[in-house]
Amino acid sequence: MDPLILAAGTTLVSAMATDGWQQARDAVAAWWQRIRPVRADSIGSELDALRTQIVAARDNVDENTERALAGIWQLRLQQLLQDEPALAAELQQLIDHLASTLPPDEQAQMRAVVMKAEARDSARVYLAGRDQHITGS
To answer: What is the extent of the structural domain holding 50?
Structure first.
C-alpha cells in the first residue's frame, strides 16, 4: 500500500480522537462530495461513527480496534485516490496539518520509512530500520 495512504488512514483516525476532529471530518467529507457525490451524505455519518469508535477505543486502551479502524480508512482513502489521483497533494497537506496537531508520541507514529532495494546476479542487499550487525561471510 502507498505510504501516503498508510499515513493518511492512521493520521485521520488519530485526529478524530482530538479537538481537531471536525476539521478532519469536513476535509474528508468534501473530498467525497467532489469525487463520489452519491456517497457524500453517508460519509459524514460514517466519520461521526468513527469519532465515537476511536474515542471509545482510546478510553478502553484498545489498540487493536484503533489499528483496525486505521486499516478500514486506509482502504477507503486508497479507493478514493484511485478514482482521483490528483487528490494526493491535498491528502498530503491534510496529513501534514493534522499530524502537527497531534501529541508528539502520535506524530512519531505517522512517519513512515520506505526502503527499496534491488539486487541483481549474486549481489546482496541488507536493509534495516536502525542498527544492523552482520557477521560471518
So the answer is: 3-110
